Amino acid sequence: MSFGASTIGAICGVGGGIVIKPVMDALGALSVAQVNFLAGCTVLAMTAYSVVRALAEKTMEGDLGRDVPLGVGATIGGMAGKALLGALATAVGRPELVGAVQAAVLAVVTLGTLLYTVFKNRITGYCVQGTVPCALIGLGLGVCSSFLGIGGGPINLVALYFFFSLDTKPAATSSLFIILLSQSAATLCTLASGAPDVPALVLVLMVAGGVIGGMVGRRVNRGLGGATVDKLFIGLMAVIIAICLGNLAKFAWL
C-alpha cells in the first residue's frame, strides 16, 4: 500500500500521506496514533528521496526564494499542528473521536481541493512575494497538514496554485519540498514526546515502500503532461473523499 500511495503521491506532488492515512484508518488494524506515525514516517522517507534526488540531478523546478520561507513556516506550523492534535487527544480522551475529527476535516479539505482543481481555470490566482507572506502561508499549511497527519499534499498544491499561480508540475515539486520540511519537524516532535509502539517490520516495509514509490513516481511524472497529472489528482481526491466519509461513519459509531 505504501508503495502505491507514494508512487501516486510523487506523481501528483501530494506526498502519499493523503492516501495512506485514510486507507489505514479504514482497515482498522492499528490505532489512530500508530497510523499517524507510520504515515508520517513513510511520507518523510518518500519526500526526502524525491527532493534529494531532484537537487542532485538539478531538476528542481521550484523557486528556493519562495519555497524556503514556505518550508520554514510549514516546519513551525508542523510542530504547532502536532501540539494541537495532542491537545485534542487529551481533551476528548477517546482515540476514536480524534479519528472522527480528522476524517471529517480531511473530507472537507479534500472536497475543497477537488472543487478548486476542477474550476481553477476560472479562478484568478495571485503572485505573492516576500519572505514574511510566504512564511505565514507556510505556517498555515504546516498546521493543517500535521494536524491531519497527511504531510500536506493537496492543501499545499491548492495554496501554490492560488497564492503563486504555479502550473501543475512546478507546484508538485515545490509541494514535496515543503512536505519534507514540515514532516521532518512533525516526526521529530513525535519522537521527542514519545512515539507510539508500532511493529518494526511494518515500519521498515512502509518506509521502504515509500522510497521505492518515490523513485517510480518521479520517473512517471517526467513523462506526463500537466493535464494528465490534473486528471489523476482529481480521481485520487474523489476516492479519498469516499474513504474519509466511510471512516467518519466508522469512528462515530465506535
TrEMBL record:
Keywords: Cell membrane, Membrane, Transmembrane, Transmembrane helix. It comes from Kribbibacterium absianum. This is Probable membrane transporter protein. It is found in: Cell membrane; Membrane. Belongs to the 4-toluene sulfonate uptake permease (TSUP) (TC 2.A.102) family. It is a multi-pass membrane protein. The chain crosses the membrane at residues 37-56, 68-91, 97-116, 147-164, 176-194, 200-220, 232-253. It comes from the Bacteria.
